[in-house]
Amino acid sequence: MDDFILYLKIGLNHVLDFSAYDHILFLVALAVIFSFDQFKKVLWLITLFTIGHTLTLALSAYGVLKVDVKIVEFLIPVTIFITGVVNIVNSAKTGATKGTINLIFALFFGLIHGLGFSNYFRMMVGREEDKLMPLIEFALGIELAQVIIVLGILIVGALLQFFFKVTRRDWILVTSAIVIGFVIPMMIERVFW
What we know:
Elements: H1 2-16, H2 22-31, H3 39-61, H4 69-89, H5 100-125, H6 132-163, H7 168-189
């Protein structure tokens, strides 16, 4: 049980660590386009990101995948930037397909974000015989942290739209622009060539 709590906490802290706020920015960019009436899509969003993230962690933990950290550290803010730009471009869209691209981003960009933590995770579980249980426990921590962040985004968006009459379009535009503003310096700092 102690190991379960340990890896769950590590997963929680991995996402909720404000000094490594790229995870939070990515979740903001992914979730800002959704509202509470799209809760099924929101759950898929969180789960797809966790699946992508966990898959690359598993491949790394079992020694199947090794990627240059400098490339991954550059690609992480690029994924956030792309998501923010797509949000801005698509902010006027309505209908059932809205948000589908962010679901795809959650899965594929989750793969990249998982690579960012893969070296540390591989060292953490490297000597353990059973790598699967720590991986699942860590993934549960990530999932829980993402639920907390995404619920926070949905609540802030709903409050702004209800009490301050901010349009959904403006909420998406301004929030996505703020996220882009944070990640541009990250991309510049992390250029690897």
